[in-house]
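Hi R.,

Here are the chain sequences for the assembly we discussed:
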Amino acid sequence: MASTPATIQRPSHGRAYVRSFLFSVKINSPLARLHVVTKLLLVLALSVVIVRFINTANPDPLGAILLALLATLALYLSGVMRWVFHSYLLVLFPALLGMALTWVIFNPDPGAGVLWRIPVYNGQITLGVSLGLGLFLAFLVGWYVVRRGVFWGLVGGLALALVVTRFVGNPSITFARFEFFHPLAIIVSQRNLVVAVTKALGYGAMIFVSLLLVMTTRDIELTGAMMQMRVPYVASFFVSTMLRSLSMALSDYSTIRQAQIARGVSLRKKNFLQIIADLAYMAVPLTATMLRRSSEVGDAVLIRGFSMQTRKPTEFHEVRRFTWVDGVVLGICALFVVIVFVFRLNITQLLGVTL
Amino acid sequence: MSVMVKVEDFHWRYPSFAGIEENPWTLKGINLEVEKGEFFGITGPSGAGKTTTCKAILGIIPHGLKIPYRYYNHHLKGSVWVDGELVTGVNPEGNVVDDQPLGELLGRGIIAPRGGMVLQDPETQFLRMSLLHEVAFGLQLLKLPAEEIEARVREALEMVGLGFLIDDAAYIHPNDLSGGQKQRVAIASFLAMRPELLVLDEPTSDLDPQGKSEVIETVRMLHERHNMTVVLVEQDPEILCRFCDRIALIEDGQVRMVELANRFYRRVDILDGCGIYKFEVSEIAARAAIHQGDSVPISIEESLACFPRDLDCALQPADYVPTGEVLLEVKDLEYVYEDGTQALFGVNFNLHKGEVLALLGTNGSGKTTVAKILNGIYAPSGGVVRVLGQDISRRSVRRQLPRHVGYVFQNPDHQIFTRKVRDEVAYGLKSLQVPAEEMEERIMQALEAVGLADKADEDPLFLGKGQRQRLAVASILAMRPEIIIVDEPTTGQDYRMVCGIMELLEELHSQGNTVLIITHDMTLVANYCQRVVVLLDGRDIFTGSPRELFGSPENVRATRLCAPQAISLSVAMRERNENFPLLLNKMEWVQALERYARG
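And here is the predicted structure of the full complex:
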């Protein structure tokens, strides 16, 4: 194993960050100092624990909150919070909120007490016309004719129908009526709220924990760890090159997005579908660029003398020894998993919080 | 001298994976010999087969590619030898399948580590995330002891002038370095492997003039010190003549000519019409029937001896004086990136209606940052920018900037969003909510302006690079912005393509468009631009006409640029005759010489 010279162990004064697979990480942060295998096991252990905490039968919201906070703290200490906030949090928050709402809507578990019940389907299908339906359709068609849009037509039509039928009633003519499925209602109960919040927090923590791995790891750590585990070099080089391309794809994405802005995509406000369509357009340049790049990377690899027969290249400042800190972290992880699974730890119940 | 590289009647056809049609032959019988220790240049138009030849020399072609059904006879003929060893050959009678010989591939294959190749874009050839490991990678594959790897990395970085980075090498991502430094890292990664042959495929096309010279100078120094054989693919005649022993012209998959460097560019009979850059003084001399001995001059020294020295200063055309309305006003512009890096420290200039302004500067001086601010992509961190009188510090104004300022990005591949040329031009128009009937008219007008009207229904991804660049211009043109910014329109393109793009911009200018060009091509600036703004380290250090810039050696030195040959000759003439006109470009020289000849 190569001795690590002082110059390579310590960066010069003023250099605080180093590029990782995704964005950059603080050189001397706690996670950057851990062995990549430790980080991987830490991520796996926390994920397993989170899966247990978000169990529907016995959810542990305080446990999920604790792990989400721990993951956030780790990201903060690694100096990557700014990028997380910049790139993920704005997407993550509505996604998790959507997940929680979906859970509430599609899991009508009354639990011990129902807070709110909204019947949405009475178990019968009625064929007929009503004032509300007529107003809704008239508004929608009118909106489309005048503004060539659908979304606000739907929203406006619905609002109009609700308001009018509230004040003048909803006279209707029924042509036919038949039974189908069973009555449905949106039930907001204490229990399904707790489960929904726990699941959203748990998945959030899981995403943060996974980000921890790619945001605090470099290619040399990964190839070094794979060398230690005697993984064939061809495989480890392939994996690290693939992960390394994440940062290149991000850089291409940023340039392509700017080119899109230059073509006026931000000139007018767009609805959600149009924004998605704009993003879909990026697939063409992104794919073309990545294909060209992969072909050139292939040539570059061959010119350096790499081939499918490459075996055991010299280790050069890549392998990192396991330290006592790695041991302690892994020990805590193992203990945590044992306590959660063997002793069925539920922090919420342990603290006597009743939900 | 013994032969290092020998290519004999080499033919190559790329496998076709996209359809049933076969690709045509890319190389059609290349014959080339490079001697050991020679600095050998290759030039030629785009698509001539220069890069393919280089890859064949190193064995990447065909050994790094998958040939369908191993039908070698269909893709390959001839042989490649390096230092007496067969790299690639084919036995046409071998590999018989169903009584049909498909050909048997011979040779040792890819010649790494004896040969290395530096590609045009260094970023695509970086394989590791630290400078230290990037340079060490080949050595690790060679299984050298770690101590030797470290010594060689240190030595290679010092050789290319990056020794000062060694202390932080483990923490520096090669992509974070400047353009010139990236190319040096690419060179260092091969130098560390101590190759006998180094191939450089247009390694300086993205660099500013000074960076370009520095990189090639580094290679020459290494070539002399280690007697390394160097093959340099390049478009710039000055670089080729200054550094190479011999130069080959590759055109349409064949070697048209191999000549000693100081004779190559005198063969105007062969070079004319093949679409490569030539010396400006040679072209002026050829047009004015001026000879130096039995050929045309190629250097300023030679031109001084044969060009008339008594031209009258009355032959100097008057410089353009901006009089039009100010469309763009940039005052004390500052910009700080998110990571805290300050890119601009106070830039000032105006852009007048109907003018062509060049924004120049070394790599990293802030040119593209300025362009992105003017297009509304970035918000200024300080100072005032007014576009058509509106202050762009307000977000609402910035959002609308693409209507008024069109920005053509450097790489056309980053700005092609659809699979049909017509749709590509329509893409921006849809954002502008142009009515359907007007949209069709605008699309065809823009495509006709760039000469792509007949390609309206083709897939842009299958167009050539020059055509894709033109399509990018058309897409902006159709949006009819008051100002068009073109970022490095000529990088990596041959002379013919550059002329095509510049004629297009000149046409736009003649139609009253206002154009701002970002470029490292000083000849282009002298030929087409009326005014120049030069940035250095995020500050404007010169504003004036190209004549004022290039006509003053002090200005050229201070801006770290290089003057084109035509005006450099005028400056040299003026040192001998102070009344000599300061002729800026080829056109002015030819007109002045014609008037001089008429008496």
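The longest strand of chain B covers residues 326-336. The first helix of chain B runs from residue 50 to 58.

Let me know if anything looks off.

Best,
T.
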